[in-house]
Amino acid sequence: MLSNEKIAHLSHVIVQEVMRHPAVMVRSDRERMLKTIKRVFVAALAVEEEIDRTVRSKLASYSRRIVEGSTEWEILYRKTFEEESRKRKV
């Protein structure tokens, strides 16, 4: 999870780069752009957290205990995370 400070910083960096790019014509004010970018970050992170909870729940429900952090757990986590992301079209 990114902190509010990190989200704000990244949002400012994105706006700065967009406004600096010569091929981009900005038709919105800076504050509106920042709010929109922050909202997108927060929404994306919320979906990612929800997927993470779902994946961890699935892995915990296996009849054979898989130790978190092990190579097997990492592989299953990544595979299950990708499947859940595809289901949600993320």
Please give a structural write-up:
The protein is built from three helices and no strands. The protein is mainly α. It has one domain (4-87). Helix 1 (4-20) crosses helix 2 (30-60). The radius of gyration is 18 Å and the shape is elongated. The mean pLDDT is 93.
Instruction: Tell me the strand percentage band.
Output: under 5%
* Main sheet properties: none
Alpha-carbon distance between the two ends = 17 Å
Low-confidence stretches: none
The number of helical segments is 3
Q: What structural class results from the helix and strand content?
A: mainly alpha
Q: What is the share of helical residues?
A: over 70%
Radius of gyration: 18 Å
Mean pLDDT: 93
Outline:
With 90 residues, the chain is mostly helical. The protein has three helices and no strands. It has one domain (4-87).
Features of the shown structure:
3 helices; mainly alpha; 90 residues; elongated
Topology of helices and strands:
Elements: H1 4-20, H2 30-60, H3 71-87
